[in-house]
Design brief:
The complex is a heterodimer of chains A (367) and B (359). With 367 residues, chain A is an alpha/beta fold. Chain A is 37% helix and 11% strand. The chains are: A alpha/beta (367), B alpha/beta (359).
């Protein structure tokens, strides 16, 4: 690759052509926005008991964010409501100015990570209906992600199959932190259903599964949670590979969302090295771990790792493959990656097009 | 192949305790009685099952007994073979797994005395690490002070997967004692199994636990840096042992980005994480988690942007390399010298002390 690098990130490269944004977070203007899509029994339940997750807080996250809702200060919609809750403002602030041709919605505040799996399923199903009603039916650039009761593989698979063939959805969405590592068998019905209806499974950083956020217990700070998503995602991916998920579901595609990608080559090398020694423990694996990763995994870009010398990051991308990266902004969150700043001048036109749009259209089946 | 230089420092050797009963002579009557009356079994950690392929190189596996349990083997296979001047012993006996801090303390004391008598006394090249009962900070400090009078102890040893993140303020008296006494803090792969071995719970397989060690080092580095350990103890050196290092550049790129974004949360962090790592953190060489081609590895060294971070190690008797290929191919003679001699001597102040005081 013949790339010219400037000492500082350039603001002037410009994104003239259309882009895909593979990580947009839609929010509800108010919680009762979901009520039309849920049985009355669940309205009453939520009023009385709230959402009981695998952590102690009745409201808000256990690690307070750096800003309200972890969002950009300029992302409050003028008509009120939280950041990301207004389609018209999202169009004005994100979709129109950046020429977003495909926007993938990843609803984070759903029923995922709740302990009561019936409640989780009811909220997730409502969120899926709500994505159509409020977003995808109103702007054809936006596509939804099917959220499911993540700890109950059977009901999750039923929800996925219910949406089979529905062009409003382009992926199934899970969060990275669950009760067990995501390669465990309790989650296999989810992968089976997703492979069956031909949608990739996106695994977005976050969630709570009751496990301490590090192998040495609970850290103190929000920055540790944020940086730690990369470590969680590595163990999730190792679990998926080593449990043989990709042997069992050879057509399954997965997207690692918002957990970085710079760690991927090193993880692959470490897995391969130890697989050489310990193959007899996982004899059902027919190929080297890094080969499953190369064939089955895509990566959203935001938050792009930020080296002192930018050429280092593009060397890492060469190790991963330009065909596997999906551009994302993470709108409306504070660590938004500005589309015009993430690639330096000199990346080839073909790689640039793949990075910003082509890979996403191909993966998500958008013409 | 890159040839080792004579006179180096092997920073990660694992002498094995043959059995819990081997420590009985180093326990008092009460603990001897506890071990025997209660029928306690050997303390082998799941982090290193004795017969797992990674626990010993095939040609280093003895006819009987645990790999690494025989000094003559270690001399022949590691110390003599790679011509080292010093070898630092990091016992991985599973004393950290017990839940009683009193028992842990008794076993750590026995282990440290065993190491001095059965190993350090028998080969003048060997140096030791003080294993501490980290569940009790008070007892840990007492044990550090007790052992530190023996200058052959150059380091305090902690496991990377323990009870709490290592930056937590509760641990700081340990770091203060180490800094005061000129000891390095070594953090070694392995779990006390007081928490699940990954941040998303328990996996199914030994290989998952081992692969996850690298992620545990990453979370510990974040904790140590953002809690402010190195603002309080700017001269404290910490060594990540058997951690792998090829993950370091991308990890730091991410940490640095978030630190710039939300440093208001931890305003006491007085230097950029990159700078803290360059001045205070070191990594043992093995395992080298990279393909065996010099181009890739040299690109990684370029990404690390420092030739002072790595310390030579064989990880004896663990199976990290074959033959004499302890150094990956393509290293410059300059870098070999740094890794084998200059960097370890700059990291372990007590090695210099030994150099000055022993003929």
């Amino acid at each position: 690759m013949n790339v010219q690098f400037r000492p500082e990130p350039s603001a002037s490269v410009g994104v003239k052509t259309a882009i895909a944004d593979c990580d947009i977070h839609p929010a509800r203007a108010a919680n009762d926005e979901l009520y039309p899509f849920m049985a009355k029994r669940w309205h009453e339940h939520l009023v009385a008991y709230g959402k009981q997750a695998y952590h102690g807080m009745m409201e808000g996250p256990p690690y307070p964010k750096a800003q309200p809702n972890a969002s950009r200060r300029d992302a409050w919609p003028p008509e009120g409501g939280p950041q990301g809750s207004s389609l018209s403002f999202m169009q004005k602030q994100l979709l129109d100015p950046y020429n977003v041709a495909l926007g993938v919605l990843n609803p984070l505040n759903s029923g995922q990570g709740l302990r009561n799996q019936d409640l989780a399923g009811a909220i997730c199903s409502a969120i899926n209906d709500w994505q159509i009603e409020k977003w995808t039916s109103k702007d054809s650039r936006l596509k939804g992600s099917i959220v499911v009761a993540n700890e109950d593989g059977v009901s999750a698979a039923a929800e996925i199959r219910k949406r089979a063939g529905d062009k409003n959805f382009v992926q199934v969405l899970l969060l990275s932190r669950n009760v067990e590592p995501l390669g465990q068998r309790r989650y296999w019905p989810i992968y089976e259903a997703a492979a069956e209806i031909g949608l990739p499974v996106g695994i977005h950083a976050f969630g709570f599964g009751g496990n301490p956020l590090t192998p040495s217990g609970w850290p103190s700070f929000y920055i540790e949670e944020m940086v730690g998503h990369a470590q969680c995602q590595q163990t999730v991916l190792a679990s998926l590979v080593l449990e043989g998920v990709f042997e069992r579901y050879p057509k399954l595609k997965m997207v690692m969302i918002e957990a970085g990608f710079g760690w991927a080559p090193s993880l692959g090398w470490r897995l391969d090295k130890n697989f050489e020694r310990l193959h007899s423990e996982v004899p059902y694996l027919k190929r080297k771990p890094s080969e499953y990763i190369r064939d089955h995994i895509w990566w959203t870009t935001q938050p792009m790792e930020d080296p002192e010398r930018r050429d280092h990051l593009f060397q890492v991308i060469e190790w991963i493959g330009w065909d596997k990266l999906l551009f994302a902004t993470d709108y409306p969150h504070w660590d938004f990656d500005e589309p015009s700043r993430v690639l330096p001048a000199g990346v080839s036109d073909a790689n640039r097009e793949a990075f910003y749009l082509g890979n996403a259209k191909k993966l998500y089946g958008i013409a | 192949m890159t040839s080792p230089l004579p006179g180096g420092v092997d920073c990660d050797l694992h002498p094995a305790v043959p059995h819990l009963t081997s420590l009985l002579p180093y326990m008092n009557d009460y603990w001897r009685d506890q071990v025997t009356t209660r029928g306690m079994t050997d303390l082998v950690s799941q982090s290193y099952p004795t017969n797992s392929p990674i626990s010993s190189r095939p040609d280093w596996r003895p006819g009987q007994g645990k790999p690494g349990s025989d000094l003559a083997d270690m001399q022949k296979q590691a110390l003599d073979r790679f011509g080292v001047r010093y070898g630092i012993c990091n016992p991985l006996y599973g004393v950290q797994m017990v839940f009683s801090e009193d028992m842990q303390d008794a076993f750590c004391r026995a282990l440290n005395d065993w190491l001095a008598k059965e190993w350090l006394d028998k080969d003048a090249r060997l140096r030791g690490s003080i294993v501490i009962p980290a569940q009790s900070v008070e007892k840990s400090v007492t044990e550090i002070e007790r052992c530190a009078s023996d200058k052959r102890f150059v380091q305090v040893l902690m496991l990377v997967m323990g009870d709490m993140p290592l930056g937590k303020r509760a641990y700081w008296p340990i770091y203060a004692a180490a800094e005061r006494l000129g000891l390095t803090i070594g953090i070694h792969a392995g779990s006390a199994y007081h928490n699940p071995p990954t941040s998303v719970g328990w996996g199914s397989y030994h290989i998952e636990d081992y692969v996850a060690q690298a992620t545990a080092f990453q979370t510990q580095l974040t904790s140590l840096i953002v809690e402010g350990v190195f603002a309080r103890h700017p001269n404290l050196k910490m060594v990540m042992l058997e951690s792998g290092f090829t993950w370091l550049p991308a990890y730091l790129w991410r940490l640095h980005k978030f630190w710039r974004g939300i440093r208001m949360e931890t305003p006491w962090v007085d230097r950029a994480p990159l700078e803290i790592v360059r001045s205070n953190i070191r990594f043992s060489l093995q395992p080298v988690d990279a393909p065996p081609d010099p181009a890739t590895l040299n690109r990684l060294f370029d990404h690390m942007q420092s030739d002072e971070l790595l310390l030579f190690s064989t990880d004896y008797p663990h199976w990290q390399f074959d033959g004499d290929e302890v150094l990956p191919p393509g290293l410059s003679p300059d870098l070999v010298r740094k890794i084998m001699i200059d960097n370890p001597l700059a990291t372990y102040g007590r090695l210099e002390f030994a150099k000055e005081t022993t003929p």
